[in-house]
Amino acid sequence: KQDLFEIIIADGGSPSELVDKFKSLQNNLIKFYLLPGNIAETRFQVQNLISSEITVFIDTDELPTGNWLERLTTPIVNGECDFTFGPTEPVMLSTNCFTRYLNDYDEFLYKYIVPHDILKGAMGNSAWRTELIKDVGFDPCLGIGGEDYDLTIRASLKGYRGKFVKDAVLKHDQSGIRTFKKFVRKMFYNYMVGASLAYRKNNMLFRRASASAIQNAKFRDPLEILNFLMKPAALIFSLMINPWEDPRHCREEFMPSKKV
After folding, report:
1. Could you report the per-residue pLDDT of 40-57, keeping only the tens digit for each?
2. Which segments of the chain does DSSP mark as H helices, in order?
3. pLDDT, tens digit, for every residue of 123-142?
């Protein structure tokens, strides 16, 4: 039933014309919150505004397939688990080497890795018990990235159960990654630096790094060499941002009384 659902748009600081567009969409089903900050800070602020029992995340470059929502949430509704991840497939054929790599790696990830390592799931196609999110919580002090990895890690450490749902497919449009600069920025900042911060925070950097190296060794693509070379640089960069003993960096207004 529609009254059991809500669609939340949480905006951290889009251009005014886009904010006005979001505001115009509001109704009994769609809610818009302007919550200034980076993605971790915005997710942290919106988590206590969620009223539904299950929270589902979808990215702006993803499109659902048939019965996607039902397939993703059914294991949670049935009590099989507390959070789920689904796979993605490309919207269109690759037009350059960068989108080819991203699409091929996603196929490899969801076929060989995530079914056996739930910590590798992507927030952009996931469902969670809302009480889990409010209990564990997004860490606003992982502003540069890694707040999604961190939530999954801490949820698992607290005993919450995750499951991979192979039939809950989203179509992923990565055609915007057309240049070397955009590719490096996505891989370096969005993934590697964020993962380094989250793994350091949870005292599992070397364990997760070694597992990742073993997993990715089976993926054959020339650009994987570039990724391999960027990972030490990402660790060094994360250490330049925040010291080894505390990979978190909080703005004063998000400074917690205790670490999460």
Report:
1. 899 999 998 998 999 999
2. 16-24, 39-46, 68-77, 97-108, 130-136, 147-157, 180-185, 194-201, 205-216, 222-241
3. 999 999 999 999 999 998 88
